[in-house]
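Quick one, probably user error.
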């Protein structure tokens, strides 16, 4: 038997139950991963609450790392004892063992600690596609990055700087200002005592920014659009403050022929070659020490509810992990 978190109906964090379950067996084309570390992400809270409906019951979790301990028929890419993990497209990470289709499993190279691999797969690949593909940054671009001291935000800031962009970051406390500055942000706005829209206009001499990377949603939506220069791009990739309300697309025209995209990691890692390429680059930067991954909290698996409360409080910085 193994331990897992299971959700029988959506709701508050307390709906997550810590229960026994049989250890699953892999079928053809699958591997069984003995989970050592689980990454906690906002998508987990959206699915748990019902904001992203899921068939019930279900085991939450989209990100984990550990060791392959069983392989199904036809699996040649992985062997028992290999370190591996997944960052999206697999449900059930909140468990001591999880079955993973081989096409979704990512090898963890030597030099990348398992703990940091689990902390960086979903958020690291998200930051990678945002800065390299959705709006490919380069020198001369200015990017506005919201929630810059959060787990994903920290990585977006660092990758934007790797690409040569000027970074304007928003955060919610003086402590978070220091974090964003240490990561290389060129200007940091504390939105609790500054109007981020007015500050962006001041910092850009009224021109606005080329792109906004916004994981906050409802609370920043209108101001973010107002920060964009003509034909700028709004990249809305999360909704930690709630969903953006319906709007008339004519608004994009009125504000300067703006672009709007709502991307997902699934769409940017649909091909296995693309999945492995993004993960490989993230892992290589971690191994060489040029990408800093901050882990703020680690909770035992049985305390998944406390982990969700910590994440959604928006008082945390860096990554939250669960340890089976």
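Nope, works fine. Designed sequence:
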């Amino acid at each position: 038997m193994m331990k897992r978190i299971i959700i029988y109906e959506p709701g508050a964090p307390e709906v997550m139950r810590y229960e026994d379950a049989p250890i699953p067996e892999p079928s053809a084309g699958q591997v069984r991963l003995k989970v050592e570390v689980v990454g906690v992400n906002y998508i987990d809270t959206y699915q748990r609450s019902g904001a992203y409906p899921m068939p019930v019951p279900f085991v939450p979790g989209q990100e984990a790392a550990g060791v392959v301990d069983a392989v199904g028929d036809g699996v040649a890419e992985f062997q028992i004892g290999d370190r591996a993990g997944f960052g999206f497209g697999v449900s059930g990470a909140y468990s001591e063992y999880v079955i993973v289709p081989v096409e979704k499993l990512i090898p963890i190279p030597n030099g990348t600690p398992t703990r940091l691999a689990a902390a960086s797969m979903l958020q690291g690949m998200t930051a990678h596609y945002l800065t390299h593909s959705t709006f490919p940054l380069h020198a001369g671009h200015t990017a506005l990055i919201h929630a810059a001291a959060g787990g994903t935000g920290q990585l977006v800031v660092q990758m934007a700087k790797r690409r040569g962009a000027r970074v304007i970051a928003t955060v919610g406390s003086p402590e978070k200002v220091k974090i964003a500055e240490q990561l290389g942000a060129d200007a940091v706005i504390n939105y609790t005592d500054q109007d981020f829209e007015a500050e962006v206009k001041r910092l850009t001499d009224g021109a606005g920014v080329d792109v906004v990377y916004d994981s906050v949603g409802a609370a920043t939506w209108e101001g973010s659009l107002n920060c964009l220069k003509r034909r700028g791009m709004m990249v809305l990739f999360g909704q930690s403050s709630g969903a953006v309300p319906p709007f008339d697309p004519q608004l994009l025209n009125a504000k300067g022929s703006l672009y709007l995209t709502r991307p997902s990691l699934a769409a940017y890692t649909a091909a296995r070659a693309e999945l492995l390429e993004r993960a490989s680059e993230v892992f290589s930067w971690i191994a060489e020490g040029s990408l800093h991954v901050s882990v703020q909290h680690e909770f035992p698996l049985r305390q998944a509810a406390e982990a969700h409360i910590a994440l959604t409080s928006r008082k945390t910085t860096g990554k939250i992990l669960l340890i089976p």
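The first strand starts at residue 2 and ends at 7.
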